[in-house]
Write a structure and sequence with these properties.
The chain has six helices and 14 strands. By secondary structure, it is of the alpha+beta class. α2 crosses α5 and α3 crosses α4. InterPro entries: Ig_E-set, IRK_C, K_chnl_inward-rec_Kir, K_chnl_inward-rec_Kir3.1, K_chnl_inward-rec_Kir_cyto, Kir_TM.
Length: about 325
């Protein structure tokens, strides 16, 4: 079977693009900080460099303009003359004075004199503007670097889901695992069934979302994820798969979206990992191989068998049948 378009990729990326926003695109500018954080790294770095470069050149030009209007550039060799900024006699020296002031380096060669009120006002404006720009851009870069997206890459999902019997009930199961020793605090898992359907009134619902119960009532959806766990959805009369059989599975078209959320123990930030299973990634009559073994004083997890399954006797009929 050819690979069809997925709603959510295996790596968790949602295949949804927003178009024809019209005037609504101005909403992105109203939340400029989040817009910058959501940009790719190359655009973030470009905006970071351009903002600082332009701001530095503009402020250095303002210092040079004050010296030019006061005539300080033509009095550099007069020891009795008191300029606005000492030892500023061209644009490069004005630029260096601005950098020394902004970076609080203060080499002591260039400084503002007390006979320049416009220079004092510009100095206050520069200090306020520099603090705002630093807080905005550096805060944006810090938030982007500390995003827990990379933590989700060490959370694993099995490549396929399986359907087999457990405790005498037909169940849909998949496996999740955590590659790091640091735990996911308050880890919770949810499942959504994405399937187009038509209502009795004739309304067509593309990509209709339906909740799959993975233990919400019993608390089984709250995970203690220190070792790989097999998540189980019992197929009963309340399940959307009540009429699903091994034969009808070949003609069905659906997608199961799995969402794993938790708090990263080391940073305290919320992390979300996603994956999906299409109908051709659901194996009827299979079960996952064990990956846990007891060794000298500890339990060992063999991740080479994480995705492995084996066939087990399973009735080919649906629960309804």
């Amino acid at each position: 079977r050819r690979e069809r378009q997925r709603f959510v990729d295996k790596n968790g990326r949602c295949n949804v693009q927003h178009g024809n926003l019209g005037g609504e695109s101005s909403r992105y500018l109203s939340d400029l900080f989040t817009t910058l954080v959501d940009l790719k790294w190359r655009w973030n770095l470009l905006i970071f460099l351009l903002t600082y470069t332009v701001a530095w050149l503009v402020m250095a030009s303002m210092w040079w303009g004050i010296a030019y209007l006061r005539g300080d550039l033509h009095q550099t060799h007069d020891d009795t003359y008191s300029p606005c900024v000492a030892n500023v006699y061209n644009f490069p020296s004005a630029f260096l004075f601005f950098i020394e002031t902004e970076a609080t380096i203060g080499y002591g060669h260039r400084y503002i004199t007390e006979r320049c009120p416009e220079g004092i006002v510009l100095f206050l404006f520069q200090s306020l503007l520099g603090s705002v720009v630093d807080a905005f851009l550096i805060g944006c870069m810090f938030i982007k670097m500390s995003q827990p997206k990379k933590r989700a890459e060490t959370l694993m999902f099995s490549r396929a889901a399986v359907v087999s019997q457990r405790d005498g009930r037909l169940c849909l199961m998949f496996r999740v695992g955590n590659l790091r020793n640091s735990h996911m605090v308050s880890a919770q898992i949810r499942c959504k069934l994405i399937k187009s359907r038509q209502t009795p009134e004739g309304e067509f619902l593309p990509l209709d979302q339906c909740e799959l119960d993975v233990g919400f009532g019993t608390g089984a959806d709250q995970l203690f994820l220190v070792s790989p766990l097999t998540i189980c959805h019992e197929i009963n009369s309340e399940s959307p798969f009540f009429c699903l059989s091994q034969r009808s599975l070949r003609s069905e078209q659906f997608e199961i979206v799995v969402i794993l959320e938790g708090i990263v123990e080391t940073t305290g930030m919320t992390c979300q990992a996603r994956t999906s299973y299409t109908e051709d990634e659901v194996l009827w009559g299979h079960r996952f191989l064990p990956v846990m073994s007891l060794e000298n004083g500890f339990f060992r997890v063999d991740y080479s068998q994480f995705h492995a399954t084996f066939e087990v006797p399973t009735p080919p009929y649906s629960v309804k049948e």
